[in-house]
Amino acid sequence: MIKKATQEDFEQIKSIMDNCVHPSWSVTVLKTAIEDKNNCFFVSTYNSDIDGYICLETCIDEASLSSIAVLPEKRNKGIASALIETAFIECKKRGINRCLLEVEETNLPALKLYEKKGFRQISIRANYYGESGAVIMERMI
Question: What is the rounded distance in angstroms from the CA atom of residue 28 to the CA atom of residue 2?
């Protein structure tokens, strides 16, 4: 089941983020992101346990996929795809028609997922992640 994230989900989201996202967000940044009504922040749950989340920051008619993660043992089960689609449905309701993201060029599973979901590469930021670059991707919603 996918639902909007709440502060009650904070501990589980932070745990996933700490284990899957580098660098992880600070406690303050994550709590603020969950509370911010401009964000599309959703979690995927199974038996009341959170197995993934997505956060899109929105501004006027544009969104930025700022973080997405799924527990390693739950990957390749369609959870990330479902989270992206749910966030895009919310974006459409808000009149948002474009989503941007950046992903480390060596993160091949993420690149494959984003291409599958209709994102296309528009730029590369060299050495953005130290020795590797960031692929900037876009999808119209």
Answer: 24
Please measure the distance between the N-terminal and C-terminal CA atoms of the chain and give it in whole angstroms.
22
Point out the catalytic residue in the list 114, 115, 129, 131.
114
Domains and CATH numbers, the chain: 2-140 (3.40.630.30)
Euclidean distance between CA atoms 54 and 41, whole angstroms? 6
114 in active site: yes
Render pLDDT for 46-93 as a digit per residue (tens, 0 to 9).
Answer: 999 999 999 999 999 999 999 999 999 999 999 999 999 999 999 999
Distance CA 114, CA 108 (A): 10
Cβ neighbours of 68 (radius 10 Å) = 23
Q: Which residues contact 29 (CB under 8 A, 6 or more apart)?
A: none
Tokens 């996929």, residue located: 65
Q: Among 128, 139, 40, which residue's Cα sits nearest to residue 90?
A: 40
User: What's the rounded Cα separation, in Å, for the pair 40 and 99?
Assistant: 12
The residue annotated as part of the active site, out of 8, 62, 102, 104, is 102
